[in-house]
Amino acid sequence: MKKIIEIFKNPVFVKLFFANFTSQMGSIIGITAFTFYLLDRFSEQPAYASIAEMMYSLPTLAVFFLVGVLADRMDRQKIAYHCDTISASLSIVLLGAIYIGWMPLIFAILFLRSAVSKFFFPAESGILQGVLSKDDYATSAGLNQMVSSLFMLFGGALGILAYRFTGVYGAIIIDSLSFVVSGLLMRACQIPEEVRLPNGNHKWKDLNIGFVFNDFKVGAGYILKNKLLRSLIVGFFLFGVVNGGFSVMPIFILKYKLAPQSYEEFSVILGVIFGSGVLIGSVISSIIIQKIKFYQAMIIGLLVTGSFVVLSGYASNITIFFVLIFISALTLPLVNIAIGGWMPSIVDKKYMGRVQGWISPLMMLSQTITLGFISASFQKVLSIEALYCIVGGALIIVAIYYMMVLPKLSKHKVEGVNQTSVAH
């Protein structure tokens, strides 16, 4: 608690924290409300909801080579601010597109808005790294994890309430206003120039195609030469497998094994249980993370979560399944907070944007491959138990890999970084 009080004494962090909070809140309300609108308005065409989901995820693969380079070469504060203002404007444009009812235009705006939002996180991560002390990284990661778990728990309900009481138009207006508030908070931050521009001032005319791709390649070289960072990111590829599996596994086990007649109702309960586990786990993990090393927290979290994911695939009834899923959610924040606290400590401030720019597409690639594999093989050669074994096994494999390499690497200085690898 003392560390949380201390970090909130930093005025820049407070503004960044609430900018991120309002932006996430508005996005979740808007996305949820729009999905329900599509299901209500086009009940005979459920593919529209799937296409809309693709419009939120595909832009990652379209702009991944740009986001990190811009976050490292241009003014990070301006990037984050303009992400918010452009997203707010596109939300208003989306209202007009919905009123017209032309679906290609609606999907194009969703794609564009999602692409713009991808530039926010690398820029914000770079700013946080610069305005916080090394000892505050884990506290910041813990707070962000708690916010994410709150939205996981209540975000869908907020979106449904907004849709029911204000309709899709009202929900998207809330979405737009949240981006406006986030942008104003971001603009109000007093951020030192060396944090905003870690690699000096660059003009847009400097960023030609050759420069961007060369910088992107430099980011890849930095990761490959940095043994500790490289080892961490190898595990991220398997995290994409986990994300892909988790996006469909819960509904599959409810529909095809545990509750075929009432899987929709139980899926809502499952969301509350999982979100509660993550929220409680975030509080507990924030305390534990101050007492053990980051790699120890990651290994423990991955082993426990992976083991209980495997066990949950063999649950014989809904009660046992919920208990096992709750336990797996309880230890998951240990991994997320450890990664969020460790990464800023081992990455040079000048490369943070490009490192973040590599992580998202890597995870998205493995996530897409996993979903394709599941689509082609589930119920043909892949049972629900096997699916849970694959996903839980992926977490256990990462834990074993980290157990083999991280303790040794964490004792040495990271190549190319003038900081020690272990943050505490």
TrEMBL record:
The keyword Membrane is annotated on this UniProt entry: yes
TM region(s), chain numbering: 12-39, 51-71, 92-112, 142-161, 168-187, 231-254, 266-287, 294-314, 320-343, 355-376, 382-403
InterPro entries tied to this protein: MFS (IPR011701), MFS_trans_sf (IPR036259)
Localization (cell): Cell membrane
Topology versus the membrane: Multi-pass membrane protein
GO molecular function, one term: transmembrane transporter activity
A cellular component term, taken from the record's GO annotations: plasma membrane
UniProt keyword terms in alphabetical order: Cell membrane, Membrane, Transmembrane, Transmembrane helix, Transport
Top-level taxon in the UniProt lineage: Bacteria
Transmembrane is among the record's keywords: yes
PANTHER family: MACROLIDE-EFFLUX PROTEIN
Stated name of the protein: MFS transporter
